[in-house]
Amino acid sequence: TATKKMELVQSRLKQADPKLLAEAQRAQWKQIYESASQAAQQFLKAPVIEAARTAFAPLSEQMEKAVRTFGSGDLAPVYRLHCPMAFGSRGASWLQPREQVNNPYYGESMLRCGSVTDTLATAAGNMKKRNHDH
Questions:
Q1: What number of CA atoms fall less than 13 Å from residue 61's CA on the CB side?
Q2: Distance, CA of 83 to CA of 104 (rounded, Å)
Q3: Domain that holds residue 89
């Protein structure tokens, strides 16, 4: 379930050891960690699925910052996808390990709405832009 997956995200965030980072990167990690942890908490406390999806957006933004800054370790490739219809056509993005769209903002009702916009590689800052149309 989404709740169990979010609990796993929260657990993995807590397990991350900032002491393994260079001193200069620790402040970046602290900011990402605090924002991501807060979004995960809001997701878990959400009374309805729509509120959980709203909380998922800032978590996705922080996870993207983390991957772009620190890399993805052995989780490569990591794809950035975008749904232009999410949140009243404001759009929203998320990361996932496969190219096939699995839209977290619409779930089963529009599971394939969206497109891959980036492929993030394992090394921090080593990204490949993809051409795409909406």
A1: 12
A2: 9
A3: 71-134
Alpha helix ranges (H) inside 71-111 = 86-89
The type of residue at 25 is Q
The total number of structural domains in the chain stands at: 2
Helices (H), 71-131: 86-89
Span between the terminal Cα atoms of the chain, in Å: 30
Please say which residue of 70, 98, 122 terminates a domain: 70
Strands 115-120 and 78-83: antiparallel
pTM over 0.70: yes
| pLDDT tens digits for range 87-123 | 999 999 999 999 999 999 998 899 999 999 999 864 4
Number of continuous H segments (helices) and E segments (strands) in the chain: 4, 4
DSSP label of 123: S
